[in-house]
């Protein structure tokens, strides 16, 4: 019994570290990748490559699930994708939304410092909650509504802290970029892109969660479906947004070891989180997100000349508080018994929500 409890605690600590590092490092890496000196890679191609890596990784995982047997893997893919065309067609909607969302996140990371990006992207909690009420008819607790109000106030405070400074102040200096080929900084564009990404994240996540109800398909097979159907949309986005540059410079222009690392981090990091997040409760997820915001702020001070103002600190604090408040369930806290494992149904529902979030 002690061994089991110790093992459970170790898994919780592992999930805390993994979630924190994934949240913090990805935002910082995306910002650095879009502002560093040198040739600037096309973000639309990075999104496509991340989906390709995710597809290959998920195929390997399903192959292992099927007992390392290619025949069973082929049969499973045929049964899930080919023999269920309607189900596959439904996946096209979130696949397209996720591709647009990931492209918008690159736009946001190009124009917002890592700390502001990290705080602003927490608005996905608001959009997810709104769509859960509208589409799933889910009822929110009074504490959750209060948390959403705190979240909006916090993000607004952070944005006002940035836009309220005149040119030449610390807030302007923090948006300055190293000499290179990066895009000219436009805070409004970055904020709008983050809002768009939050909106699409909420819509796609809830749509996907509604689809997953009752479906007997593993999380890795769902990832194969998503990535497989995301690739055509991703290539179309490349052609529409960057067709001229692709023709002139090529698909892998600006790629180096760091871009490869960024692509792998975005693809495989999310899959690793999918493994450990089932061991994290709402409080642990709140700690992970809060630590990621703090790490992003501290790292931005040293990496991007970020200057921490009092208003930004207050806004970030409100966002962190809203995250904990939204995940807090008074009834569950009173009725919870130590050492009691969640039911299989609860675990299944948690996995559905996890996949719908598409970390």
From TrEMBL:
Membrane topology: Multi-pass membrane protein
Keywords: Membrane, Sugar transport, Transmembrane, Transmembrane helix, Transport
Any GO CC annotation of this UniProt entry: Golgi membrane
Main location class: membrane
InterPro entries recorded: EmrE-like, Nuc_sug_transpt
Family as reported in the entry's similarity comment: Belongs to the nucleotide-sugar transporter family. SLC35A subfamily.
Identification of the protein by name: UDP-N-acetylglucosamine transporter
Species of provenance: Anopheles merus
